[in-house]
């Protein structure tokens, strides 16, 4: 299915479900900031890392299904409506057709145009072939209301690892799916895409706000879990001449935010499960951004704890994020114009921070 067909399918879904939605109570999660000249306020929603996992046949891991179904249902109830939804990658767990189909059916329930990001769990079985048939290009850009959006495929790696090392596609997928796996390989965007990015950015004026979507962080946080992209420094350098750049990424299944020069970085959560922060788990070198106030540890007795989805409000070319955490207080990370970086609006004062969970 091409992008065009997908859109047609969504328009159809929108037409057939609008009567239903009108009869429901909308949830209000939006605070619209005053628009500054030239930039219309708008918002979009972000859902990521669903990891839809087949057990066998039509049986899928219930908990991961429920997370995505809930996010789709809640996004459809947003009022005012977001302009579009981004799905941030890892729709499937092991990249199989049944997983991608089942996940695709759930996200097709969104009443909005949806932009897709490719995750490693969607890719390493058939190298993105089936995903591409459903959703189109692995990387692309578009413009919306004065903002330039770029979606990167940041989960590529060395050709030798991808093409020569494994006896089967299934083995390759399994090796890339694990954390702390010495057989894994670092994420990259690769030469070809870097060239494309350079050409794409050459067409954009320096005062146009830019939002980049990638699956992995375009900053180096922790290599063992691929909270990492090899060419992060090169990409940051390419984005440096622009006044306002925001990078939004999935993969880490936790709240992170950072500011490097002109670039604001914000992660999004998973609808499936939370990862711990690297330094709480591994003794290896890691670099959680010092700006980031970690999210609460998940409560293992609550199956949806520390998972959720996020709603972004854009004004003046910067992004404010509302993290909708199930079974935990929602958090808002907003760009502070005076300080020039994102900050957690309720957690910034250490006295107001919720202590980490200490029971198991
Ligand atoms: Fe993931
Ligand atoms: Fe991932």
Shape: globular
Mean pLDDT, all residues: 86
The SS-based structural class is alpha/beta
Proportion of strand residues: 15-25%
What composes the largest sheet?
Answer: 7 strands, mixed
The number of helical segments is 10
Lateral arrangement of strands in the main beta sheet: 5-4-1-12-13-14-15
Ligands (ions, cofactors included): fe (ii) ion
Cα gyration radius (Å): 19 Å
Which terms would index this structure?
360 residues; binds fe (ii) ion; seven-stranded mixed β-sheet; 10 helices; globular; alpha/beta
Give an overview of the whole structure:
A 7-stranded mixed β-sheet has the order 5-4-1-12-13-14-15, with helices on one face. The chain has a 6-stranded mixed β-sheet with strand order 6-7-8-9-11-10, with no helix packed on it. A two-stranded antiparallel ribbon has the order 2-3. The protein is built from 10 helices and 15 strands. The protein has 360 residues and is an alpha/beta fold. The protein has helices at residues 3-22, 62-76, 97-107, 120-123, 129-135, 159-164, 169-177, 190-202, 232-239, 278-281; strands spanning 42-47, 54-56, 59-60, 85-87, 114-116, 140-144, 147-151, 210-214, 245-249, 257-260, 263-267, 308-315, 318-325, 331-336, 341-344. The longest helix is centred in the N-terminal third of the chain and has 20 residues, at 3-22. Bound molecules: fe (ii) ion (2 copies). Residues 90, 119-121, 215, 251 line the site of one fe (ii) ion.
């Amino acid at each position: 299915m091409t992008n065009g067909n997908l859109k047609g399918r969504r328009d159809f879904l929108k037409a057939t479900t609008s009567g239903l939605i009108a009869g429901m109570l909308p949830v209000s999660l939006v605070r619209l900031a005053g628009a500054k000249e030239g930039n219309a306020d708008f918002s979009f929603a972000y859902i990521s890392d669903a990891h839809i996992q087949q057990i066998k046949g039509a049986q899928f891991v219930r908990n991961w299904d429920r997370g995505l179904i809930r996010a789709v249902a809640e996004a459809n109830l947003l009022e005012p409506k977001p302009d579009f939804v981004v799905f941030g990658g890892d729709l499937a767990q092991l990249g199989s057709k049944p997983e991608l189909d089942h996940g695709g059916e759930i996200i097709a329930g969104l009443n909005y145009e949806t932009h897709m990001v490719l995750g490693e769990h969607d890719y390493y079985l058939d190298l993105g072939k089936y995903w591409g048939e459903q959703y189109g290009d692995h990387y692309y850009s578009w413009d919306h209301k004065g903002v330039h959006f770029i979606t990167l495929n940041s989960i590529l790696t060395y050709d030798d690892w991808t093409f020569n090392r494994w006896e089967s596609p299934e083995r390759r997928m399994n090796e890339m799916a694990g954390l702390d796996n010495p057989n894994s390989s670092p994420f990259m965007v690769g030469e070809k895409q870097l060239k494309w990015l350079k050409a794409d950015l050459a067409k954009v004026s320096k005062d146009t706000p830019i939002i980049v979507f990638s699956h992995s962080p375009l900053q180096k946080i922790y290599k063992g879990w691929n909270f990492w992209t090899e060419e992060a420094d090169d990409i940051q350098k390419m984005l440096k001449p622009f006044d306002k750049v925001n990078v939004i990424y999935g993969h880490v299944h936790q709240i992170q935010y950072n500011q490097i020069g002109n670039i604001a970085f914000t992660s999004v959560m998973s609808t499936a499960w939370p990862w711990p922060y690297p330094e709480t788990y591994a003794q290896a070198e890691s670099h959680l951004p010092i700006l980031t106030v970690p999210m609460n540890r998940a409560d293992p007795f609550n199956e949806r704890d520390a998972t959720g989805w996020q709603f972004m409000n854009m004004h003046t070319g910067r992004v404010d994020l509302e993290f909708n955490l199930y079974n935990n207080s929602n958090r808002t990370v907003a760009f502070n114009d005076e300080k020039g970086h994102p900050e957690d609006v309720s957690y910034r004062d250490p006295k107001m921070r919720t202590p980490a969970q200490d029971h198991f």
